[in-house]
Amino acid sequence: MAQKKEQKEQASKRIALLVRTMVNGYSVELEHEGYMYYDVQSLLEGLFVHVGMNRLEAMTKDEIKTMVEAVKDGSAIKKLQAEVNELKAAIDEQKKLIREQKRVIKESKNELNIDE
To answer: Which keywords does this Swiss-Prot/TrEMBL entry list (predicted)?
Structure first.
């Protein structure tokens, strides 16, 4: 039942995509982010990465090509898992810093209460 609900939610997602033909290529507006492509091949690759893989951040032509090649040769899963691991490590580091800051604040409050 949860799977049906998830499928329904995914089916109901809408993406605002506007493609304009320009003098020197194609301008794409996706979720209020602008992208420029200079030929049809790069337009299709860009749409595949930005829309299909939900990579809305700006990427260079080489980064897009690398991502497309990774999907073709099957190494994308490893690359994405490495990114997930890096993000998890960054989150853990941020949590550690937050705990440390909370500890310092608590100690500072305790010192202020003692002095009064």
So the answer is: Coiled coil
